[in-house]
Write the structure tokens for this entry.
Amino acid sequence: MNKKINIKTKNDSYSINIEKNSIIKNIKKIIYKNNKVVFLIDKKVFYIFKKLNNYKNQNYITINCSEKIKNFNNYVNLSEKIIKIGVERNSTIVAIGGGTLGDLSGFIASTLLRGINLILIPTTLLSQVDSSVGGKNGINTKSGKNLVGTFYQPKSVIIDPSILSTLSKRELLSGYAEIIKHGIINDKKFFYWLNNNSKKIFKLDNNILTQAIYKSILIKRKYVLKDEKEKLKNSHSRAILNFGHTFGHALETFYKFNQKFTHGEAISIGMIIAASFSHNLGYLSLKDFEKIKIHFLSNNLPVQDENMFNKKIFNIIDKDKKNLNGKINFVLLKGIGNAFLSNKQNLKNLKKNTHIIK
Ligand code: GLY
């Protein structure tokens, strides 16, 4: 099963192609069609690139990827290296790897010569359903994650579900958390479909996996098309995609992005807190809350952590750069598939109402 999704924003138009075993075929096309190509490749997936007969003749840089690579030093060093290779305005950067590589590569591509072509080949489930869609990129600073970056759409995105067979169960689960998030915020039918099919996703059933990735991207696309630069404050706001991320992101920061939680695990706990908050404020029925929690428990997504209501977590949330005039933007639920953005919340209200329903 192959799927194609077209994304047409105000200034850009490109396609996302989902196809099994399609990476080498597409790399050959990219080399043939483009003037000068520089490949930035996560070392973990360099074995894919090596399948290209003449890979040694290509311009490529391998990188040992983790969240830590998204820093100013790497941005400068990689940019200098790419400039030395002799890129021009019509040259292309191809990023082959997970979300951290995509974020760094996107920022480099958007600023080199004021913007050269970018093609993304995401190799983790998380990057296939989230970061490779919608054009956000960025690097981290001492004060926080993704504080420097741009919105810059790629020329195309190539998704190969067969590549996921090399991922650990935990990495798959991390991506799955973003997939179920898309169902919870926007598509009740998709949530129920996932109830019936999640086990097949973890078994990497190609048809089911392709459909889950496809549907997930279609949901994300709705928000990107309506609100590419995250300016809206209503139910079409791109910020709705941050469901579960207020506490999830605070937990990641609390644990200093160490191995305790993957991104998906942290936002899973964040989603359960956000769903509880929605119920405690009178928006979400107990029945819907329980359906969400049962889905998480039966798919081994974590629903709590001993430190989730630590004072430091609330301090991190309070200091978030996205807060305005003491108000915390919070994504809440009126039901499964029906999320909305509340800009009325404050720290006191959060402390009082976020406790998890037993
Ligand atoms: N991951 C949320 C967004 O792309 O807006």
User: Anything to note?
Assistant: Residues 220 and 326 are 29 Å apart (CA to CA). The pocket of glycine is lined by residues 130, 134, 136, 238, 241 (CB under 6 Å). The first strand starts at residue 3 and ends at 8.
